[in-house]
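Example: ABC transporter ATP-binding protein.
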Amino acid sequence: MIEITSLSKRYGSFTAVRSLDLVVPAGELFGFLGPNGAGKTTTMRMIAGILQPTAGIIRIAGHDLRDAPLAAKRALGFIPDRPFIYEKLTGMEFLRFSAGLYGQEGPEVDRRGEELLALFDLEPWRDELVESYSHGMRQKLIIASAFVHRPKVIVVDEPMVGLDPKSSKILKDLFREYTRRGHTVMMSTHTLEVAEGMCDRIGIMQRGELVACGTMHDLQQASGNDDALEDIFLRLTGDGAARDLMEVLDA
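Written out as C-alpha cells, the predicted fold is:
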C-alpha cells in the first residue's frame, strides 16, 4: 500500500504540493487526477523516489521511503509518462537489466520477461535493439519492466499514451488482475473515461491540494447529483474554459 502523511514540495516560494495526506490500500486501483500543474506528477515522482520531498512521510508497503529507501523502492514499480530507455540494449536485455536493479536474475527473470514480452506482442523484437522500437513499443517495454520484479505497488503516469487499442485493453486487464491479487496501483491520467471506468477510488488535485477523494458514488453524493466524472472534475478545478472559448470565438 501507499501511505502519504503531510507531504509537501516547495520550489523557492512556490508550493507544488501542500500537506498531502493519502492512503491507497492493498487491492485498490486509485485514480489520481488534476489539471496540468496541479501537483500530480510531482507527487508521483516523490513516491517513486525521484524527487526529494520538502516535508512529509511516504511509506511503500510499510517501508518509510526516507529511512529505508531500498526496501521501499524494491516494493515499487514506476511507469513514467515518457519511455526513456537505454537504446543500445535489446528488449530482453532491458528487462534483465531492470530486474537486476532489484537484485533479481537468472532463469526465473528470463521466464517472466518472456511472458511480459509475449503479453504485449513484443516477443518478435526481444533481441532487437530498443533504438529500433516505435514510441508505442517503448511504452510497452517500460510497462513490462515495471512488472518484471513483481512489485507490490505500481505507480503509473499516463499509462495509455502511445498504446494501440489492443495494448490499452491488455494493460487495463493487467491492472485489474494485479489489484485483485492484493496489490496496489496508483494511476495518473487525463483520460477521465478511463479513470471513471477502471478506478476503485479517485482523487482530484488542484493547486497542490487534494480537493476531492472517494468512489464515483462518493464524488457524486458530494456534488449533489449524478454527474459524470468530467462534470465533477471541471466543477472542482475551474469550469471557465467554455466561457473563455466563447470569448475567443466571438472576438
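The chain has two domains: 2-75+152-250, 85-150.
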